[in-house]
C-alpha cells in the first residue's frame, strides 16, 4: 500500500510540473508574439468623427416605442 501511495504522489508531482511548465511556456510565447505583432503591425488610422453626437429622431421614437412595448408586457404579465 505504501508503494502505491508513493507512485501516486510521484505521478501527481510530475503531472503538476508538466502543467506548470506548459502554462509558463504558453504565457512567455504569447507575450513574445504580442510584442512582435505590435512592433511589426502598422499603426491603425483612427476614423474621423464629429466632436458632438447628433441623436436622430428615429432612435428617440424607437426608445419611446420600446418603453411602451415593455410596459404593456409587464402589465399583461401582472394581470
Mean pLDDT: 83
Number of strands: 0
Low-confidence stretches: none
Task: Provide a count of the helices.
Answer: 2
Q: How would a textbook summarize the main sheet?
A: none
Give the CA-based shape.
Answer: flat
As a percent range, the share of helical residues equals over 70%
Structural class per helix/strand content? mainly alpha
Amino- and carboxy-terminal Cα gap: 68 Å
Subcellular location: Cell membrane
Enzyme class: translocase
Transmembrane segments: 12-33
InterPro entries: Na_pump_deCOase, OadG
Structural overview:
- It is a single-pass membrane protein.
- Its EC number is 7.2.4.2.
- One of its GO terms (cellular component) is plasma membrane.
- It is found in: Cell membrane.
- It is an enzyme of class 7 (translocase).
- 0% of the residues are buried.
- The chain is mainly α and 79 residues long.
- It has helices at 2-40, 57-78.
- The chain has one domain (2-44, 55-78).
- The longest helix is centred in the first third of the chain and has 39 residues, at 2-40.
- It has 2 helices and no strands.
Task: Give the SSE layout.
Layout: H1 2-40, H2 57-78
Task: Summarize this structure as a short list of keywords or feature phrases.
2 helices, 77% helix, oxaloacetate decarboxylase activity, transport, mainly alpha, transmembrane, 79 residues, ion transport, single chain
